[in-house]
Amino acid sequence: MRVLLWFLGRGACACARLDSRVAAEVAGWAEGQRLCLRIGSAGPAMALAKEGGRLRFLGLRTVPEADLVIHFKHLEGALPVFLGQQSIAGAYAQRRMTLRGDLTFAMSAVRVLLITEAYLFPGIITRRIMQRVPRREVSMGRVYLRTLLPT
């Protein structure tokens, strides 16, 4: 699960540099705004922040002072989302996760995560979990390359 969170966090940062829609979403975030995605009370976590006008991956850790915390209650609730079997909206509707923070920021962060997933997952999976699959502005290869290389 930590590997999936790492790819999602680093992939979001790559998309913020390569995709204009993600860049526009992140530009609307306040400087220093932080997002934490975690699973269970002691499970894996991932954190992102807007620093220096860019989206930055803070690592596989919980950030206690995060402005937005997306908390999956347990691993069984998170796995279908991270394996491309269920949308994040579906998980929220089934009460598999909770949200703490500003709803406007949460909606923006979810849009960033959805576009990121559209780059990281193959088309057959994204068509199954998304009502409308976002169009890719750059190749998946460029996003994967930027995700894997240190910034």
TrEMBL record:
Q: Which domain of life is it from?
A: Bacteria
Tell me the protein's name.
Answer: SCP2 domain-containing protein
Reply yes or no: does the keyword Transmembrane helix apply.
Answer: yes
What parts of the sequence cross the membrane? 105-126
Q: Which UniProt keywords apply?
A: Membrane, Transmembrane, Transmembrane helix
